[in-house]
Structures are given as structure tokens and as C-alpha cells.
Amino acid sequence: MQIGSIERRGHVLTRPALKCLNQVAAINPTLGCIHQCAYCYVRGYTMYPGDGKVFIYDAIVEKLRRELSKRRKLPLYVFFSPTCDVLQPIPQVLKVTYDLMRVLFEHGIGVNLLTKGKIPVNFLPLFQRYKKLVHVQIGITTLCRDIQRRLEPYASTPAERVRNIERLCAIDVVPEIKLDPLIPDVTDTEQNITTLFKALQKYGIRSTGMNYLFLRPQIKKNIGKAFRNTPLLANNILRHYEKGKSINLLAAQSHVFALDMQYRKQAYTYIAECAKASGIYAYVCGCKNPDITEEPLCATTWGQYFEEKFTQKRLFSPKTGTNRSIEL
Q1: Domain residues of the chain, as ranges?
Q2: Splitting the chain (328 residues) into consecutive groups of 10 residues, what average pLDDT does each group show?
Q3: What angle do CA 228, 229, 233 make, to 5 degrees?
């Protein structure tokens, strides 16, 4: 593993290229991610430094402070993070992530965290203090350690993610669950789904977003490597995409290959029924399934979440006089 530093050129807060996020303020503390998830689209980008390499942006906390001080409008919230997991098990990454979040909280800006990492204990008091400004999404698609290890070799274990959920709920920060990406005949089986929802049920989880794996050349290659010891399973996964379709997920002209529409519809319906039986509302990600759902994009959903939180907060807190904007 190689840990280094790199200069951050341009703004700290940026707009991702994904359609669902291109109006959202987002931040990437690092270039590269140690988790090396097989389905990660970033590993196919030209700017990806390579597996096992992570570069932390120099003085990014101080740059964020200066950037916020010069803004006429502050964002309602900031998304962590489009091209890396900010809770990688690297002390330097965890420290800079903590400091960035603290700066945002001190400015009254919400944090929308999506992670498959282990939440350090020292983050919990920070989240508890600013719980009206925190929205956490825990990515988990299976409780099977073997499957998870193949797909996400250096991310936290399923048991650690369940522990994340337990600790967050204990401080009244109930996370949302992301079933993303689901993989046909691997993580969408009846046994896998029912076992997962049964475990989540006791924590009072209210909602989960669903999305299936989409393929790009690098992702297809990485999936093959992840299941190289079980080539029949790898071939079976890829076989499901033979009747798939190309869809555009980016603001720019870039396409991915998605599962057959009918397969996705039937599977989402079944998984939603399983979730409902456990008292959980399951919705289809509108960002990654524009051909089959009218669910709002992530930016709309997250914006509504933080708008409600800020409305509640203003009932009891004095006005700061600071202008806010959902957009970047």
C-alpha cells in the first residue's frame, strides 16, 4: 500500500458528473481508495492512481475553510464522496475526513455520508452533537463474509457494518441502507435478502435504496477476477447481461450496460415486498434506473431530507442570516 499526498487544484467542493449528483456539492478528500471494490466504476478512470495507492489532498481542510468564507451562498449539505470511500482504514484519511466534516458542521452545513467502511468510535460524538445535520447511508448487500470479501476485499466486514448501524441508532442517527450494487444470482437470492432484512429489522431501519450492478469494461474485468475461483458463477453473472441494454448515467455522453429491464422490475418488486415484511420501505434508485422508475434523483431526495431537518432546527434555533442553497 502506498499513501502519499497530492496538490488539490481547483475548488474543494465540486459537482460530480453523474446526473443524479451534478447539482450537489461534493468533496473527495483523496485520490484513490484502498477498498478496491470489484464493481467500482472509478477504477476504470484515467485519473485513478492504481490499486493500493491513495493520495490525500494537501491542506484540504484549510482550503475548505477559505472557500466557505468567500461563498455568497453555502450549500445545504455536502456529499462524501463521489470517487472514494472517506472511511478507508487509513489513519491519515480518517483524520482529514473528521476535520472536513467538523468544519462543515461548524458552518451549519449538512453531511451526507455514503460508506462501506467502519465508522471510527471518535466520529460518533461528532455525529451525535450535529445529528440534525447528518445523513448516513450504509452500503451493505449481504451478510455473507465470503461474498463480501470477493467483491469488497478491503472494505469493512458485514458484521462491522451491522455494528455501524447499531451504534448510529444508539445515538438517534438512523441510517439509510443502500442495496447497491445487487448482483444477479449472488446477492439478490431469497436466502440472502431475507437474512439481511431480518438482521436490519431489529434496528428500526426505515428505508433502503436498491440498484443492480451495471457493467463497464473495467468492472466486467474486475468481476471476473473476484470470482476467478468459481468461473461458473462468474459466467452466470455475466450471462444475465446478455439481454441487457446500454443506458446513459452521466451528464456527459458516457454509457453503461444494465441488466434486462424485465429482470430488474421483477427483482425490485420481490425485494420491496421482502423489505415491507420487515417494516422497511424499499425504493428503486431513480439515478441508475431511469428506464423503469419515476423515483426522484438522489439530489432531490437528499435535498428534501436536509430541508426538513433545517426547518425543524429553525423552530428552536436563532436565524444565522446565512443564505443557503441546495445547489452547489
Answers
A1: 2-315
A2: 92 81 87 97 92 97 96 93 96 98 97 97 98 96 97 98 98 96 97 97 94 93 93 91 83 76 95 96 86 68 63 45 47
A3: 75
Q: Which amino acid is at 116?
A: K
Which residues are paired to 247 by β-bridges? Answer: 256
Read off the DSSP letter of residue 212: E
| Separation of alpha carbons 2 and 50, rounded Å | 10
This prediction's pTM:
0.90
Residue whose C-alpha cell is 468510535: 121
> Dihedral angle at the C-alpha atoms of 145, 147, 153, 155, nearest 10 degrees?
-60
Instruction: Confirm or reject CATH 3.40.50.2300 for domain 2-315, answering yes or no.
Output: no
- Measure CA 206 to chain center: 17
CB 211 within 8 A of CB 288: yes
Q: Answer for the pair 120, 80: CB distance below 8 angstroms, yes or no.
A: no
Cβ neighbors of 150 (< 8 A, separation 6 or more) are 38, 226, 227
- 3-class SS at 68? helix
